[in-house]
Design goal:
There is one protein chain. This protein is 50% helix and 18% strand. By secondary structure, the chain is an alpha/beta fold. The chain has one domain (5-167): 3-Layer(aba) Sandwich (Rossmann fold). Strand 3, helix 3 and strand 4 (90-95) form a beta-alpha-beta unit.
Length: 169
């Protein structure tokens, strides 16, 4: 039986409604090859507290309420912090941000995609993008395993050839 790959998906959204819609959409996205473990957060500060979990993908908003924290961390600040700890984390921003300079800062900080928050349809777009990112990760991991296996076999073959050469003298 084929083993399912597990991927950690962080959803950072201060709107309970949007967070619920995203969680439901992503929860339905699991397939035969992958299993998503979803981590919902309502603030950047709450997300920071769980960064010991290695996220594969983060979906985040720009405006995040801080749940009473002194300094409300916005999505851009959170992304930069996450990229320091997990440089390979893939990021999708879901926001209704109209300030182009902020969107440019997100791009400079390493987002993969920006989705305009425009109702439940945007959750479907996010689900599809997460699926594409996970699929690309799976292809990369399979190739890596294949090449690692070939390298190990090559090393074993070379070692066996040397051993045979010295043992038959």
């Amino acid at each position: 039986m084929k083993r399912k790959e597990t991927y950690n998906i962080f959803v950072v959204e201060d709107s309970d409604v949007y967070r619920t819609i995203l969680m439901e959409a992503l929860g339905r996205a699991n397939d035969n090859d992958s299993q998503y473990v979803l981590y919902p957060f309502s603030s950047g500060e709450d997300c920071i507290n769980d960064l010991h979990i290695s996220p594969d993908v983060v979906v985040l908003d720009y405006h995040l309420n801080g749940n009473g924290y002194e300094s409300n961390m916005n999505g851009l600040m959170l992304l930069r912090k996450m990229k320091q700890l997990w440089p390979n984390v893939e990021a999708i921003v879901l926001s209704c941000q109209k300030d182009v300079s902020i969107v440019k800062e997100f791009v400079r900080s390493g987002i993969n995609r920006y989705v305009k928050k425009d109702g439940p349809g945007s959750a479907t777009k996010v689900k599809d993008l997460v699926g594409n990112i996970i699929h690309a990760k799976m292809v990369h991991q399979r190739r890596f395993r294949k090449y690692a296996t070939l390298l190990i076999l090559a090393v074993i073959t070379v070692c066996a050839a040397f051993a045979w050469t010295f043992l038959t003298k």
